[in-house]
Amino acid sequence: MYLNILDNKFALITSTAIIIIPFYIYKTYRTLKNEYQEKLLFYNRHNCVVMYNGTQALKQARGRGVKIRLLVNYEHCANKCQEIKSLIKEGIEVQTYISNKPGMSSIMHYKYMVKDYTKCGGFVFTGSLNLSETGFLNNYEDIVFTSNFYTAQAFHENFEECWNYIVMDNKTLMNRTVLLDINFA
């Protein structure tokens, strides 16, 4: 009788193991596969290089599914209209800051990029560097790259605030007229 109980326990444990082990292996396989696919997707979408003449790089990143939004100064984009139009045509969102003061007495002079921002963090590039050939190649500049959550959050919130302000401002009659004249609207 005692041997019969041991045989039943052994059979029960063996049967349970036969059911649970393949399930555990399958579950682990699925988890690892999903993690790999998420990392691959992240890499494919976010592996990009920042460069001065970045029109082509921005288009390539957009082609990989990267969401790109640009804020540009109207006063600075006069000789870049064709490039900006080509970015818009590729699905890149562009908002143009139009100062209500004559000339360049008021420009949006932010110099930063927020990359891969989520509720868990992101990356920020900021500093004195103008994103120009002179800025990259000739000047002594200070730049900071950081993944600090609070810094990324603050820059993201600032970008959203600026973006929303410019979107609303560009709905005014004066700004709509200016944007229509350069075929940005």
From TrEMBL:
Give the keywords, sorted. Hydrolase, Lipid degradation, Lipid metabolism, Membrane, Transmembrane, Transmembrane helix
The UniProt transmembrane annotation reads 6-26
InterPro entries the UniProt entry points to: PLD-like_dom, PLD_domain, PLipase_D/transphosphatidylase
Domain PLD phosphodiesterase, by residue range, is 104-135
Question: Domain of life here?
Answer: Eukaryota
Cross-referenced Pfam families, in alphabetical order? PLDc_2 (PF13091)
Family stated for the protein in its record: Belongs to the phospholipase D family. MitoPLD/Zucchini subfamily.
What is the name attached to this protein's record?
Mitochondrial cardiolipin hydrolase
The species this protein was found in: Molorchus minor
Its lineage opens with: Eukaryota, Metazoa, Ecdysozoa, Arthropoda, Hexapoda
